[in-house]
Every structure is written in structure tokens, then in C-alpha cells.
Automatic annotation (TrEMBL):
Keyword Transit peptide annotated: yes
Protein known as: Probable plastid-lipid-associated protein 2, chloroplastic
Keywords: Chloroplast, Plastid, Transit peptide
Species of provenance: Camelina sativa
Cell compartments where the protein resides: Plastid, Chloroplast
UniProt entry tagged with the keyword Ion transport: no
Gene encoding the protein: LOC104718093
Length: 319
């Protein structure tokens, strides 16, 4: 019955036979609703026309195969591909968040255990395998902007600070700013202390050498003008070479120099930065970008070091 109901939807052409007295109708096809044929296999009209069910040719099955089954399979395949793409994006986002979370409390990799470093290395490898930008140097719009260093395997990046030899001073931010229009790179380190902040940076030019690699030539170093605070903030204690030193006894000495400090701060902060040239034998390096999207950039240096940078403004900078 299901087949009958299906066929009822299609009008069909019937070949009819006539009596000898109706020759004028013998070559005229008559369109008859399928429902009429199903319920009345053989019938006659007043003109003596007999309709035979065996004369019909219906290809509903072929049409269904061509436009139904095949189209359905193509639709299912398209949905499957879309689902896989969505899952891939979700997996990449999960890896990015896991990697960013693994940086918490490790001071950009300077204070990292071998176990944690191995876990981070595994996450980096997984993320590199899902790189959505296989030719980063051909997507300069993604490289452009300020990137904050979140992790590096180069543990000697700041050897003095990593050994705690400079008390009261910490690295506040390490960044790299890329200007893809002018092919320039600026690496900057910002220090923070009780008296204010200061920065040291290097300016460089870069050349594209391959779809993933750039050659960097450093041209100039810059010691920024200290931005001193009007008031001096001293912590209760400071750790020097593993020992805590109580600073409360000197707080009284600092009270008498508050006004002087404010005057000196305004005077020094108005001075221009100090610029110096860099020696030629140490002024070149190359960088290989192994992962790049709008949030994260992973690069490997010529010494085998890994650098993970997060784009300024990215939600991944927020724990």
C-alpha cells in the first residue's frame, strides 16, 4: 500500500488502444492520474477506449536512487566533514587553553621542573601538529602586532634575575612587536622595582627566507627612560641568595627623602632614552614559526630554544 500511495503522486501517460471505429484516437496519448489506474486496473469509457495497466512504464525507483539516495549520501558526507571540522577546532582551542594554563606560576619557564617542562613540550608538539597557518610568512597580518612572551625553554634568558642577584627588581613583561609593513621587530624587556619601571629593547629588521623562517638582523639597542614613581614602596622583606632580609628598619630613613625622590623622578623621566649599536658578530639570528593563529605563536630559535608568545589582548593572557 505504501508503494501505491507513492505512485499516486505521479501523473503518467497511458498508451491506449481503440476499436476500429475510433481510429482518430489511436495515436493520442492520454494522461491519467495514477490513482485512477491503481484502483481501476482495467476500465472502459463510453467511446470504447480500454486502458491496460500493463502498458505503463514507471521509473520512480530510478528517480529515487538518483535524486534521493545519492543526494542523501552527499548530504550525510557534508555533515560528517562539517562535524569533523568543528571537532578539530574545539580540540585546538582546548590544547591552547591547556597550554596557557600550564604557564601559571612558572615565571615564563625560568622556574620550571623537568616534569612540567616535559608536559609543556608535549602540549606544544600537539599544537604544532594542528597548525592552521602552514606558511606564516605568507600571513603577515597574523604576525603583525605585539606578542607577550609566555614561555621559553631558554632558561638563561635572564641569568641574573633567575639567580635572585637583583633584589627588589623583577621582570614585569617580555614582549616582541612586529611591524610587517616595515619588516621590523622590537624585542623589549620591562623591569619593575620599588622606584618605578624601566625597559631595555633591541630593534631589528627581518627578511623572509622560507614560508616558515625569517632571518633577523639586530641593529640597535635602547635603554628606555626610567619611569619613576613619586613615592617609594618597600616590601616588608626581600630574598637575597636564598635568605630573607627584613627591610622594616630602613623604612624610617626613606620617609625623609620622599620629596627629593619625587623631584628626581620628574627630572629623570623627562630625559631621552639611551641608544647604542650592537656588535655585528652577534647581531643576526633566525626564527622558525611552527604554529600561528590570532592568539598564539610558537617559534623555535637557531639554538633549539622554544618560544611561546600570546597576542596582546588575547583572552589566553587571563588565567
Amino acid at each position: 500500500m505504501a508503494a501505491i500511495q507513492l505512485f499516486n503522486q505521479f501523473p503518467c501517460k497511458a498508451r491506449v488502444t481503440t476499436s476500429s471505429n475510433s481510429k482518430s484516437l489511436s495515436k493520442i496519448p492520454i494522461t491519467v492520474p495514477m490513482s485512477s489506474i491503481i484502483h481501476r486496473p482495467v476500465f472502459s469509457t463510453g467511446g470504447g477506449i480500454a486502458v491496460s495497466r500493463g502498458d505503463f512504464r514507471v521509473r520512480a525507483t530510478d528517480a529515487e536512487d538518483e535524486w534521493g539516495t545519492e543526494a542523501g549520501e552527499r548530504g550525510s558526507a557534508a555533515l560528517s566533514v562539517a562535524d569533523e571540522a568543528i571537532e578539530a577546532v574545539e580540540e585546538t582551542e582546548r590544547l591552547k587553553r591547556s597550554l596557557a594554563d600550564s604557564f601559571y606560576g612558572i615565571d615564563r619557564g625560568l622556574n620550571t621542573s623537568s616534569e612540567t617542562r616535559a608536559e609543556i613540550g608535549d602540549l606544544i608538539t600537539q599544537l604544532e601538529s594542528k597548525n592552521p597557518t602552514p606558511a606564516p610568512t605568507e600571513a603577515l597580518f597574523l604576525l603583525n602586532g605585539k606578542w607577550i612572551l609566555a614561555y621559553t625553554s631558554f632558561v638563561n634568558l635572564f641569568p641574573l634575575l633567575s639567580r635572585g642577584i637583583l633584589p627588589l627588581v623583577k621582570v614585569d613583561e617580555i614582549s616582541q612587536t612586529i611591524d610587517s609593513d616595515n619588516f621590523t621587530v622590537q624585542n623589549s624587556v620591562r623591569f619593575a622595582g620599588p622606584l618605578g619601571t624601566n625597559s631595555i629593547s633591541t630593534n631589528a629588521k627581518f627578511e623572509i627566507r622560507s614560508p616558515k623562517r625569517v632571518q633577523i638582523k639586530f641593529e640597535q639597542g635602547v635603554i628606555g627612560t626610567p619611569q619613576l614613581t613619586d613615592s617609594i614602596e618597600i616590601p616588608d622583606n626581600v630574598e637575597v641568595l636564598g635568605q630573607k632580609i627584613d627591610l622594616n628598619p630602613i623604612r624610617g630613613l626613606l620617609t625623609s627623602v620622599q620629596d627629593t625622590a619625587s623631584s628626581v623622578a620628574r627630572s629623570i623621566s623627562s630625559q631621552p632614552p639611551l641608544k647604542f649599536s650592537l656588535p655585528g658578530d652577534k647581531a643576526e639570528s633566525w626564527l622558525l614559526t611552527t604554529y600561528l593563529d590570532k592568539d598564539i605563536r610558537i617559534s623555535r630559535g637557531d639554538g633549539g630554544s622554544i618560544f611561546v608568545l600570546i597576542k596582546e589582548g588575547s583572552p589566553l593572557l587571563n588565567p
